[in-house]
C-alpha cells in the first residue's frame, strides 16, 4: 500500500485515496479478525473437549477401567442366533454393584479446600477460587470429589497450622508534577 498523496493533484483526490486506503485496511482487519475469532472459538471448543475427555478418563481410571473401547464381545464367523451383547465376567468392574463406583464429578460439583488465600475455607465449584487466590504468591488450593474430603483436608490444615488468611492492602496516591 502506497501513500495516497504521492501522485495527487488536489485535496479531494488525496481524501479519496485516503478513504480507499482506509477501506482496504478495514477490509483486511475485518477478514483477519473474523479468521482469528473463528480460530479462537475452535481452539476453545478443542480445549473443552480435551478437558472433558481427560475428566472421563480420570473417572474411568477411578472405576478400574484403563481404556475406553475395549470389548469382551467376540464374534465368530458363521455364528448363528441373535447377538447376546457383551459377556460380563464376575470379577470385571462392569459386574460391580453401582454403589462401588466413583461417579463422574462435574466441575461445578467439585469441592475445594483453600488453605492459603483471601478467605480460606471449603468451596463448592471452581468459580469461587479465582477471586480468592488471584494475585497471591504461594496460594494453596486442593480439589476434592466430596464436601467431606474437602472439609477433612481443611480441618487437618487448621490443626497443623497451615491455613493462612492473606490480607492485601491497596494504597493509592495521586501523583502530580509537584509530587517528589
TrEMBL record:
<dbReference type="Pfam" id="PF01693">
    <property type="entry name" value="Cauli_VI"/>
</dbReference>
<dbReference type="InterPro" id="IPR037056">
    <property type="entry name" value="RNase_H1_N_sf"/>
</dbReference>
<feature type="region of interest" description="Disordered">
    <location>
        <begin position="73"/>
        <end position="95"/>
    </location>
</feature>
<feature type="domain" description="Ribonuclease H1 N-terminal">
    <location>
        <begin position="111"/>
        <end position="152"/>
    </location>
</feature>
<dbReference type="InterPro" id="IPR011320">
    <property type="entry name" value="RNase_H1_N"/>
</dbReference>
<dbReference type="InterPro" id="IPR009027">
    <property type="entry name" value="Ribosomal_bL9/RNase_H1_N"/>
</dbReference>
<protein>
    <submittedName>
        <fullName>Predicted protein</fullName>
    </submittedName>
</protein>
Amino acid at each position: 500500500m502506497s501513500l495516497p498523496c504521492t501522485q495527487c493533484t488536489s485535496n479531494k483526490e488525496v481524501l479519496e485515496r485516503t478513504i480507499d486506503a482506509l477501506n482496504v485496511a478495514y477490509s483486511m482487519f475485518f477478514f483477519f479478525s473474523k479468521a482469528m475469532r473463528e480460530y479462537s472459538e475452535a481452539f476453545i471448543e478443542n480445549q473443552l473437549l480435551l478437558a472433558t475427555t481427560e475428566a472421563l478418563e480420570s473417572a474411568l481410571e477411578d472405576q478400574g477401567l484403563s481404556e475406553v473401547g475395549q470389548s469382551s464381545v467376540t464374534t465368530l464367523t458363521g455364528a448363528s442366533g441373535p447377538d447376546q451383547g457383551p459377556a460380563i465376567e464376575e470379577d470385571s468392574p462392569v459386574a460391580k454393584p453401582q454403589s462401588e463406583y466413583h461417579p463422574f464429578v462435574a466441575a461445578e460439583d467439585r469441592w475445594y479446600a483453600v488453605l492459603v488465600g483471601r478467605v480460606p475455607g471449603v468451596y463448592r465449584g471452581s468459580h469461587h477460587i479465582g477471586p480468592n487466590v488471584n494475585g497471591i504468591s504461594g496460594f494453596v488450593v486442593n480439589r476434592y470429589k466430596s464436601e467431606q474430603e474437602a472439609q477433612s483436608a481443611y480441618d487437618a490444615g487448621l490443626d497443623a497450622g497451615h491455613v493462612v488468611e492473606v490480607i492485601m492492602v491497596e494504597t493509592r496516591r495521586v501523583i502530580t508534577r509537584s509530587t517528589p
